[in-house]
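thread: overnight batch results

M.L. [08:02]
morning all. the overnight job finished for the chain we discussed friday. pasting input first so we're all looking at the same thing
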Amino acid sequence: MGLEKSKDVKINIRIKPEYESDVETNLLLLQFLNHLSKGEDTLAFKNLLENRDIIVAPNFSFDGEFKDLEKDLIFIERLYKIENYYRIDFQIPEQMDKDDWEDIQKLEYAMENKPTVHNLNRLTIELTDLETVSNIIELFDGEKIQRKLMIQQTGSDARLELFGATIPLEKVETIYNSLKVDGIERLKRKLELMDEGESIRIVLLPGDDPVFSEYYYFKKEKSNY
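M.L. [08:03]
and the structure it wrote out:
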């Protein structure tokens, strides 16, 4: 016979080793534990073939930290949404660093077409095209000229790699609210001496508004269905 209404049963629930890094498996477990932590219902283990209760715990308690449980659940829910949106599979790492958190935010913001926002200290670019340098000089030529600019970056091999998954990157659009050229007259003199194929460095500084926004556009993996 099975145990019924036991008062002294301790249950340890673990994920099989091969699924320990799987996001969906961890999500299901954490959702289950989160439900148990509320202590609102009776916990019962059943023999489905015989439709018979094996263990019934009407007064169970959750032996764990509620804050840690909720924190882990929120994090795994975030990863699960990203997985489904980009049609990828993550492997949950044992440790994370600052770059990992920033990459998660980039993916989440891209899902909502929202930018990551930063403050600019300085922007340095190197150019070898005389016409492009000339156009920049013309754009910023004048006393205390400031401009709002958008710079677009693309590349056939551009990608973001996170937790064992690779998400192809279509492009990054960076919008600078206010820029000015550092040493416009010096830049003019460099342009006069610039030979074809030679590189020239241009330093752009923030103007009255130092904020810039980055929009990331990722490609979704092809579905197998």
